[in-house]
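User: I've been going back and forth on whether these two constructs are worth ordering. Before I decide, could you fold them both?

Assistant: Sure. I'll take them in the order you sent them. The first construct and its structure tokens:
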Amino acid sequence: MEGKQIGYIRVSSTDQNTARQLDGFHLDKVFTDRCSGKDTSRPQLTACLDYLRDGDTLHVHSIDRLARNLQDLLRIIESLNQRDVSVSFHKEGLTFSAGKAEDPFQKLQLQIIGAVAQSHDPGKAERRYRYRESRREVQRTQAILHTRAGRTRSQDGR
């Protein structure tokens, strides 16, 4: 008997679009989380892992959508493979199947990509943007205050 094709989609915030992930794939069921991937405490991930049965294939857009921590990633894949569930990452073109001889190069790719995903801080760009915006606001406020005081930046030595 052929197993089911199950999809797992994760976006980091509620306003992000899930349409690009796994678009065009025929899936029997899809689980979608709208939260950070910093750990595995995600309601739909838990439901998805509980739902999967022997012979099923879990489809995920990319490695960082399943886990942002290398240890969590390896644990999830190993646990699923032990249950005879395959895991397919479409962006990276990697599939990990139970009973299939382990491809050392594929495992190395998984570890490298997983480590990169772990080191990437998705909030860093947003924090940098907010910092720059707050600096601009401070500079605008200083310019207004200087103008009101009748001074220009050149007169103030800046």
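The second construct, handled the same way:
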Amino acid sequence: MAVAGAHLHRRWVEEQAASQKKQQREKERRAREQKAEAEGGERERAAATETAKRDALLTDAVAWRNAETVRAFVAAAGSAMTGGAVTHGFESWARWALAEATRLDPISSGRFTRVSELPQDKCTQVVAPRS
């Protein structure tokens, strides 16, 4: 009977050790999965940030080009006025058009500076005004 008891005890100890090893392996597997998940999420956030920055860059470039086009148009319209016949109406329109160009221009309006000075993780939170 003592031999049978010792055998049962040894078997119980072995099962406990195997169970602990299994629990440890499961814990390590979960830790690896969580780490991989976190790294994947960080990569996704970095990619989203880069996409947002690129989109903002292209939006600003188009807005800048539109502002430059408006300025050139106002200058050409002023040059086309014959013999100094610039009217008060034209001057008023030109002031308005140039103010709109300044508003559109991300450099003149300061919108570009504000976005470029943000920390990278905040760039995705910026919504540039659309024209």
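Notes on the second construct follow. The chain has a mean pLDDT of 81. DSSP finds three helices and no strands in the chain.
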